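Issue: ligand-bound run for glutathione - logging full I/O for the record.

Environment: standard queue, default settings, no custom constraints.

Inputs:
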Amino acid sequence: MTLTLYGGARSRASMPRWYMEEKGIAYAWHQLDLEAGEHRCEPFTRINPFGKVPALVEEDPGLPGGRVQLFESGAILLYLAERHGGECRTAAERALAQQWVLFANATLATALFVPSNREREFPRLMTVLDGLLAGGHPLIGSDWGVADCAVNAYLAYLPIFFPQIDLSPYPNVQATIAATQQRPAYQQAMGQR
Ligand SMILES: N[C@@H](CCC(=O)N[C@@H](CS)C(=O)NCC(=O)O)C(=O)O
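Outputs:
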């Protein structure tokens, strides 16, 4: 069985990379030269025809056709969580993981990265998240998991991409970012972004 994660420098590939580092899942890292446009041509477009990273390929004779290939960071995270991370063991657990990964990649990402949404949506989402993150507990159950990876990766982007945003009204968000930055697996994944 081999897992290969395709990504680029400073790309969203750091999210599934963080998850695999955190869970001790063995993988090969294939860094594409995004500046040179390597992601927009073959052979990579045979994995993601949209020419975006991250993408994941798993090769295993036990898989239908011997292989699974995926794009979209959320789909990759959820696959890893279920197949290799010991998560999503029931329909309810799977749905909760999907809820948080979709919240992160759709609702939270849009509130952060679409400027017209930021003013209206950002304070609203941060206020609720700040309450939910009080105490530093994982978002689902008692162990760090895919929901924390997806949501906290975006929160930790805040000081990187938006250093001008004042986070002092959200002390639990600030504590979560600080705790994330201290995690060795996060440092390993982000250090090689
Ligand atoms: N929704 C996608 C977004 C993928 C995406 O936009 N990736 C960026 C890097 S973070 C990319 O490949 N950009 C290069 C391009 O669009 O040419 C995901 O979460 O995987």
